[in-house]
Every structure is written in structure tokens, then in C-alpha cells.
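Quick one, probably user error.
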């Protein structure tokens, strides 16, 4: 049977899976790291893709390939298709001021929500373009086309045939800030407002529309952003909430109707199948666990054991884990805060528990927000590197207030891209019905006092930042 490949070009690494197009069975896989930082030369992504593909056995016997990639990253190209400057990644917060300016210029959050289903924050591409225009006007003037990481890699796989050949999909386009999931159209006026002039943008393909082929004849799928690709890899259906704990924390719900939240808490994204994916994202997720383990001098397994040995609520010790600023809530200049330290809570186990609960409380706020968009919650799927932690899996239902299903660890973004490639190859009406991943169910009695105490400290931190003028 034919083989298909799926790529996940994430913040930290490039992963490739090769699967049987009919059954979805994994045949082989590969991986290569990306450089650290919030600013990366896209050539590093292409190099990592080449190495990951080689480790996965190459594409010689593969019929179709699609790319899932980190959302929002700003890739600027000149008239010749050369990269103008290193790409700014989603987690680069230097455009926070630009986000505030753009929001005010259009008339506030309601105007942006009506226009494109989201309100600018530093993560979104439109704000990075305004930063570029303000901080690097010469580079802004050279910019002839703007695309996203997955768009650029798809274009490079096709042989970089010209700016007019750039393509994308609904899922990734909906995170730019100048394309509307509700209307299915670009808002070139918003791009021009940010960049200062017009630019070529990728053509938005239908969910299973071919994106061309490689020079060797391998069919290309449109690809998608990482969150939409993961939902496709999980075979998520309307009402399914995907709670992903990776570099970022993401809570999204598959919906049949678009969302537009003027507060900016929920971004009204599209998914990779023709539905919608209202979503919240936090900047601080699995690396909160990494940082706490490093602080305590333990590995992640021991951090998990320590957290599970402490009582719910950690005796009143609360960690607000804004270690890299924060996107939801929009506090790009904030820092982490530890509150409630006493002689009784000055324990390694209490700090470990506070770290896990702080991470989960941010996601619980997100679950409330996406549920409020109107789609009834059917089930909650807990995925991502952070979900490998036994403490996260066992504490999550108590903090989230609902049972959670934990699929086995896997490369669900790459799997979603591979499933899309199989869909494009088959030219079918719907994605292939590959076997769904099994799930481990976790239940626990809700502990509302944990979230109540966290909210007190979160809001106290916000009041202090406001008083300090940040």
C-alpha cells in the first residue's frame, strides 16, 4: 500500500512520521533538533527537516507528504524569495507594544474580533509585522511576501517555485491576524496597517486540496498549524477539547461555528478539516516543570513523585508560572510569582505540587473560556510532553473539574499531517478512518479551593504589575 509522511516542525524540533496510507500504521520515523531562541533563521528548519527525513528513510517510496508547523512565526521574503531576516517565533514578545497599538488603532477588541475573530497579542504575525515596520523599516520595505513556518517549508519542498506559489491552509492562516476564519478571506488592509505596505500572502487551500508536488513527484498536502494538525491526528470531533502541554499550553475545542471573543482570551481559529478551533494558548507549560525540577535538583520523574506526595493546594503555596511573560492573560512583561511561603510550605514536595497546580490552573481558565464559546464539551484529551508526567495526569481532573483522557505519548502533529497527506492522496470527502489512539481515563474529585487560591494570587500579581506601571 502507498506510504505517506507527516512533518511536525515545532519550536524545539522537527519530527517526521511515515505511515501506511490505508491503515495509518507507523512504518518509520525521524527527528532533528531546532536551535533555541525566539528568533530563528528558517534555513535551520529546512536543515532539520532534511536530517529528520533522512533518519526516517527519505521520501523515495512516499506518495504524499504534508507539514504541520508552529503557528504565527513571521517569515518575510524579498522579491527573489530570499529570507529578509530571521523569523520571529510565536513566543517572541517584543511586539507586545505593537499589539496594543494595533488594537487601539482599529477601535478596540470588538473591532478586531469582528474583523478576524481574534484580538492582537504579541504572538500573532500581524503584531510582528508592525514591530518590523517600526524597528527595522529597511527590512519592512524589502518584504515582498509574508508566510508562516509551515507555509515556507511546504514551498521549499516544492522547490521554491516563486512567491505566487506560496500556499497555506485555514488553520494556519487563522492565526495571522489578517485572515478571517468566519469569512474565509484575507484582510489586506490589516496587513498593510501593520507592515506599512501590501505584500504577497499564501493562497489558502481547501482542507484536502493538493499543494503541488516536490521536484521528485511526491504529492504535497496543504499542511496546517500545529494545533489544527494535532486535532486531526487525534481524530478530534466537534465537542472534543484538546489540552496540550508542550512548550506552550493550549486548550482548544473543535466547533462547527466560528468564535469571536472581543476580550481576546479566545482566538477564533479554524481547524484542518473545515470546522473551527476556538483556542487559548499560554506561553508557560511544560518548561514550568523543567524549571522547577532544575530548581529542586531532581529529574521529572522525581518531581512528579514529590508533587503527588504533597496535599492538594500545597498547603496554600501558589506558583503563578509566568516564567516567560504570558499570553493568556496578556501580560508579556510579567514574571513568575511564588506566594504563601511559610515554614510549613517550605518543602520540596509543596513547591513541586504548586508548580503542577499552577500550570494546570492556567489551562483550567482556558477550558472555561473555550467552553463559553457555545460548543458543549464532549471530552477532554490531555496530550503533549508535559502530559507524560504522572502528577500532571492524576492532578489534572481535580483542577480542571472534569475527567480527562490521556492518549499514549505520540507525535500527534506529525500524525495529523500524515493523515492529511493520505486524505489528499485519496481525494476523498473526509480524512481516512485510521484507528483512534487508545486513552487512559483519569478521574478525581474537583478541588475548587486550588483554583480559588490561584486566582487570588494571579490577580494580586496583576494588581502589583498595574501599580508598577507595567
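Nope, works fine. Designed sequence:
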Amino acid at each position: 500500500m502507498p506510504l505517506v509522511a507527516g512533518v511536525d516542525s515545532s519550536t524545539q524540533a522537527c519530527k517526521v512520521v511515515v505511515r501506511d496510507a490505508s491503515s495509518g500504521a507507523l512504518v518509520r520515523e525521524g527527528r532533528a533538533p531546532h536551535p533555541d531562541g525566539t528568533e530563528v533563521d528558517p534555513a535551520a528548519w529546512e536543515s532539520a527537516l532534511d536530517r529528520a527525513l533522512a533518519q526516517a528513510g527519505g521520501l523515495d517510496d512516499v506518495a504524499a507528504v504534508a507539514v504541520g508547523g508552529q503557528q504565527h512565526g513571521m517569515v518575510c521574503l524579498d522579491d527573489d524569495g530570499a529570507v529578509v531576516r530571521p523569523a520571529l517565533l510565536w513566543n517572541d514578545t517584543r511586539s507586545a507594544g505593537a499589539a496594543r497599538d494595533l488594537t487601539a488603532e482599529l477601535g478596540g477588541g470588538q473591532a478586531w474580533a469582528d474583523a478576524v475573530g481574534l484580538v492582537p497579542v504579541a504572538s500573532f504575525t500581524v503584531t510582528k509585522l508592525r514591530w518590523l515596520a517600526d524597528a527595522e523599516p529597511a527590512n519592512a520595505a524589502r518584504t515582498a511576501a509574508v508566510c508562516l513556518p509551515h507555509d515556507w517549508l511546504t514551498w521549499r519542498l516544492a522547490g521554491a517555485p516563486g512567491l505566487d506559489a506560496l500556499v497555506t491552509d485555514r488553520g494556519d492562516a487563522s492565526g495571522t491576524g489578517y485572515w478571517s476564519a468566519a469569512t474565509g478571506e484575507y484582510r489586506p488592509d490589516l496587513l498593510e496597517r501593520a507592515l506599512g505596505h501590501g505584500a504577497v500572502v499564501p493562497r489558502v487551500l481547501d482542507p484536502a486540496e493538493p499543494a503541488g508536488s516536490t521536484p521528485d513527484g511526491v504529492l504535497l498536502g496543504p499542511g496546517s498549524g500545529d494545533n489544527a494538525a494535532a486535532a486531526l491526528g487525534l481524530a478530534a470531533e466537534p465537542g472534543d477539547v484538546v489540552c496540550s502541554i508542550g512548550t506552550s499550553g493550549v486548550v482548544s475545542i473543535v466547533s462547527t461555528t466560528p468564535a469571536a471573543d472581543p476580550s481576546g482570551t479566545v482566538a477564533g481559529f479554524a481547524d484542518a478539516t473545515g470546522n473551527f478551533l476556538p483556542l487559548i494558548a499560554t506561553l508557560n507549560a511544560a518548561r514550568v516543570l523543567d524549571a522547577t525540577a532544575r530548581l529542586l535538583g531532581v529529574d521529572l520523574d522525581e518531581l512528579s513523585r514529590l508533587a503527588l506526595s504533597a496535599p492538594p493546594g500545597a498547603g496554600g503555596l501558589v506558583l503563578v508560572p509566568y516564567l516567560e511573560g504570558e499570553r493568556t492573560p496578556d501580560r508579556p512583561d510579567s514574571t513568575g510569582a511564588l506566594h504563601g511561603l511559610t515554614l510549613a510550605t517550605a518543602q520540596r514536595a509543596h513547591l513541586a505540587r504548586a508548580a503542577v497546580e499552577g500550570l494546570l490552573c492556567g489551562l483550567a481558565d482556558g477550558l472555561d473560556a473555550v467552553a463559553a464559546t457555545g460548543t458543549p464539551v464532549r471530552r477532554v484529551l490531555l496530550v503533549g510532553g508535559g502530559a507524560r508526567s504522572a502528577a500532571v495526569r492524576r492532578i489534572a481532573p481535580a483542577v480542571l473539574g472534569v475527567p480527562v483522557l490521556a492518549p499514549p505519548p505520540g507525535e500527534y502533529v506529525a500524525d495529523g499531517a500524515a493523515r492529511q497527506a493520505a486524505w489528499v492522496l485519496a481525494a476523498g470527502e473526509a480524512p481516512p478512518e485510521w484507528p483512534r489512539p487508545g486513552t487512559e481515563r483519569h478521574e478525581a474529585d474537583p478541588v475548587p479551593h486550588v483554583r480559588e487560591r490561584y486566582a487570588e494570587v494571579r490577580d494580586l500579581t496583576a494588581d502589583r504589575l498595574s501599580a508598577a506601571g507595567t
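The chain has 15 helices and 23 strands.
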